[in-house]
Design brief:
This protein is an alpha/beta fold. The chain is about 55% helix and about 10% strand. The protein folds into 5 domains: about 1-70; about 75-110; about 120-305, P-loop containing nucleotide triphosphate hydrolases (Rossmann fold, 3-Layer(aba) Sandwich), CATH 3.40.50; about 310-415, Helicase, Ruva Protein, domain 3 (Orthogonal Bundle); about 425-470, no CATH class.
Length: about 475
Amino acid sequence: MRRATVEREMELRHKNEMLRVETEARARAKAERENADIIREQIRLKASEHRQTVLESIRTAGTLFGEGFRAFVTDRDKVTATVAGLTLLAVGVYSAKNATAVTGRFIEARLGKPSLVRETSRITVLEALRHPIQVSRRLLSRPQDVLEGVVLSPSLEARVRDIAIATRNTKKNRGLYRHILLYGPPGTGKTLFAKKLALHSGMDYAIMTGGDVAPMGREGVTAMHKLFDWANTSRRGLLLFMDEADAFLRKRATEEISKDLRATLNAFLYHMGQHSNKFMLVLASNLPEQFDCAINSRIDVMVHFDLPQQEERERLVRLHFDNCVLKPATEGKRRLKLAQFDYGRKCSEVARLTEGMSGREIAQLAVSWQATAYASKDGVLTEAMMDACVQDAVQQYRQKMRWLKAEGPGRGVEHPLSGVQGETLTSWSLATDPSYPCLAGPCTFRICSWMGTGLCPGPLSPRMSCGGGRPFCPPGHPLL
């Protein structure tokens, strides 16, 4: 009974609440309908007052601005001070912008390394902070002998020593450096001599390759200018060595090169055309005949690096045998063991068997001796192991020569085929080349068609040369 009463009370209360809400909503709607005109008028009055306020503010601001501008224009001192201030502000902004760019280029030229440079002995601030001990040793080191660790023929040795002495004296007397071309087969010591020349002369060196220029595209000209700007900031003098120069300095008239590469070559010619007391250029190439004529006219000295003969090969074998075998056998924690045999006789025999090989290939042969010893169980290098490495190197060399012969003459041949048993060439031609720099005038003689690659078929014999130093086949060869 009580539960029913409570439910009844709640139901009545809910109905009363709904009636009250409905009554209030109707009353509110009725009041809004009756007061719509009044509310609309109030909104209109507020908008009118706001518009009047804005217009008055504009009039007041315009009046104040006009009076202030009139007073400013009529006051000559204020006008002068304002113009001077704006001028100083513009000069300050412009100067700050350009000073930042100049400072950036200055820091880049002295602290950074150009993107074209692969290796350099020039000391930078970052390198000095990272390796202070090594940098101190380099600064305190004395100039090295230009031919230390370099094996050349006696005539070439005398020639390059004269060049080294002249370069060192040029640096001492602050003269103008000469541009040098080193040409000849790969692996004959051109890069090594360039480094030694810089160290002997007390100069820094920087090494770049001609193949790195073409991929730069439009950035090549800017990179080339940055390279020479960086070279001109060297206090000790810089020897800029370009390896594989023929990949970049090709003939513009006959070779198909892009506009970007042509522009980069023109920028290089501009810098090369002026002698400097800050840097010298040393170019290395296997195919100098592919150079542009403008490059040839800018070269002061040409040095031909030929393949080592019997005497030079024996010196090279002994040098690398000492560095790669004897020293590891007596020094270091992991010692290489060496069997007992006549080392001198073996070096002479290896020199005889490696006829036609370059100094680099002989160095690789010595490294193979060391690797073979380390790969053995007992770590002992025997005479038989050395002979096996030599035979393998000779077979590889002969295979390379067969590949080069299959390509035909004038395709960048590295070594003479006359050192390979059973190989004979009989391709000859009559040539008249007025570009040969003979003192007596143009050369006219029969030459081997392989002369451009340094290959002369038949038995080995001393080569003759014209007045300009051009090699040609020795007398006695058959002419077809």
